[in-house]
Amino acid sequence: MNIQTLSKDEALKSLLTSVNGLSATEAVKRLHEYGLNEIKEIRKVPLYKKFLAQFTHFLAVLLWAAVALCFLSEYFHPGEGLLSLGIAITVVIFINAVFTFIQEYRAEKAVEELKKLLPFNVKVIREGVVKEVRSEKVVPGDIILLSEGDKVPADSRLIESNRLMVNNAPLTGESDARLRGPEAFNGNYFDSPNIVFAGTLVVSGLGRAVAYATGMSTEFGKIAHLTGGVQERLSPLQKEIVRVTKIVAVIAITTGIFFFALGFFIGRSFWHNFLFAVGIIIANVPEGLLPTVTLSLAMGSQRMAKKKALIKTLTSVETLGSVTVICTDKTGTLTQNKMEVEKVWTLEGQGARGKGRGGRDDVGSGFKPVPATHMLMQTAYFCNNATCDNGAYKGDPTDAAILKAAREALGDIKAERIAEIPFDSDRKRMTVVYKGSGVQGFKGSSEQMLSALDPLTPRPLEPFQYVSFTKGALETVLPLCSGILVSDKVGAIHESPLQQITEDNKNSIMQAYHSMMDAGLRVIAFAYKPVGAIHELPLQLSDFTDIESDLVFAGLMGLEDPPRPEVPDAMKKCHDAGIKVIMITGDASRTAIAIARQIGLINNEPVVIEGHEMDIMPDSALREKLLSSEIIFARMTPVHKMRVVSVLEDEGERVAVTGDGVNDAPALKKANIGVAMGMTGTDVAREAADIILLDDNFASIVNAIEEGRGIFENIRKFISYIFASNIPEIVPYIAYVVFSIPLPLTIMQILAVDLGTDMFPALALGAEKPAKEVMKQPPRSPDEKLLNSRILGRAYFFLGPIEAAAGLFGFFYVLKSGGWQWGATLPQDHLLYMQATTACLAGIIVSQIGNVFACRSFHESVFSLGFFSNRLILYGIIIELILSAFIIYHPLGNMIFGTGSLELKVWLVLVPFGTGLLLAEEVRKFYVRRMIRNRFI
Q1: Which of 589, 615, 685, 843 lies 20 to 30 angstroms, CA to CA, from 40?
Q2: Global confidence as pTM
Q3: How many whole angstroms separate alpha carbon 337 and alpha carbon 390?
């Protein structure tokens, strides 16, 4: 069926539907017949392949090599215990693979669940009533309503359109929007102007279309079936993790080879040296790093979702940590988006009438408009796309507030709308055309209404058949006006309700306009035009051009949108964190400045740039302006916003930008982090963004940045924690080679620490909430590495040696207590030797308990953080102690790990090492905090 060649009625008939849409019963029937309207992932990577991939990454390959060497050595030199070691390392690989797979799977599911919080809804007509349904419930035959910012949910045939522009870039790659219309087309299907495809984007205008293909039957679905999934690239954080693991692996292998050679030099046998080399490698490998990073990102994104910020990809969480500039809208982001008409102004009144600032309640319930406001209220009522359903106002917040004020003043008015020029960000106005018979005051003749504008010009005497109403920004409406309303009286010609607009009138208008803006109000201008007979319908573009000329200025409305109460604190956080906030708004500069002062965005006289200045400003001048500490962009279009973002990024800034409109999508894509509005944003903006604010609140962006910084710090805390335990695992092997003592710690006991007792406290560190000081520091450079000299120095040369001292002290304490003499050898199955190595293991475990508290913050004292503020750490320590009890006191644990039971006195002599490590770290933090304070004094 070539549906593009059919007329509107033929298309509806072929799909067994009508302009009133399907019945509820028929919609359910077709949903069962055609299935959900969704694109299935044809070639999604199977779970078993994802699991097998855990055995082939760099760390796993390194461990597999160790396993091969162990089995080979057991074959050539049996009886050295290398078979059990090879089996143990294999178990380690499997444990690590299972754990990492589970964490990644949970993270993937968490992201899927979070995305369900923001469904893709579609307006359809069913049984003659407009309903909002989930996109997957759309079926062939549904009548779909399309407007600016919508994503088309299904392949559809247009049946009505009003300047509808659709961008087919998601399907064809062509970024130019094309005008669409309902007329039959006999050409190529893909070139047809009456077809809109699923996944394409409505750039402007309005339309109605009938769906004829859904789900995998759409052109999008066919392409998905052919191409399958796309391989994801590694994020910067993932690349940094790979870099860290490779650095550690190189260190481990180099150290192992060096001490293997050293063992030969001092006369050790090959197998002793080999055992030592394998132990060094195992001790250095951070087996739990990958699952912990995944868990940290997943938990961070879930915490952010609770704070109303939905993360579309886990790695975006960490990217937020390096943001230096936030470019934010005003309306709905910095303000509550709870518009209310606060003041009205007409020339007759020569002043503002309102209910808040002047103490008068002229616009509230029961408002009786003075004469000149009557036409202003009618214009406000008709030039409006909001609706009122049982007292609830729906639609754009500005439209809803204006409609509420008009309805409270006039009640409900019925008239037939015949055409509309939709609002867009370039024109900054909208115009509608109504039949004049339904508009109050337009039952006279054109002579009566227009003679006052130019009494010498003859006027036709036919009744007005149409009236146009226009609203928008004053600078775009006032230049179109040649007359001004001074009274609503239309009784006789000599009562002349209109006059030609004069410079004095314009000065009065501008004075009222500035007064409202200085009070922080958003000001909308209104005008109308009585139109003679329009002979051709539907209206053509040339008709609209004529309609938006020689308008009659009706008046102004000032709308109050109070700032969100959380924003001032969020602004202070940004200032403390070294993040610059730039307001980019479509509102006028005076309104923007007033709101900026209320929320603490500016304290002095800011640099203000308006759209018309931006148009002629070279990039070099813009760069210079952007260096200002306080800057506001007013009367901006999305094109201007894109340019600001581009210049900032060229200057090396990391930019987060907010947006909600279809034209904001390029800026959202361009920015390091695109932030879309979940409540008021368009589908196009949401799709382009990295983060979606479920409450449209600026404070949620700041919370997200705080979480992003915290994630990076948590990964560093984890690295510091596990690297600190590497030293007490390595030092016993060095002492074993250099001093010819019994080996204080076996490889199996190293594995018990790395993948047993350490694992759960380390994971709890990955879930640590952001520290207080994280938003007191300047933004992190994107070039800053996860693993640096400070982290390594703290772990290897401060914390690690304390833990090594604890382990060796426990080892020699038990040996001396058992009568061991220096130089004496002990067989591996000797009880005293097993107890001594167990004491070394216990010393590391006790020290790591102190270390997990020490690593909760690099600067803040654990006593100010509170020992119980992260309960996951307490649970991790409990699991650590249970595992330790199994390893040390259970016969099966003794057999697997070569351990022996310890007396209470051994634990008592080891506990001071754990508390001592914590206190030593507290002293270090004290001096670090003092150094930081002195730096800022």
Answers
A1: 685
A2: 0.69
A3: 21
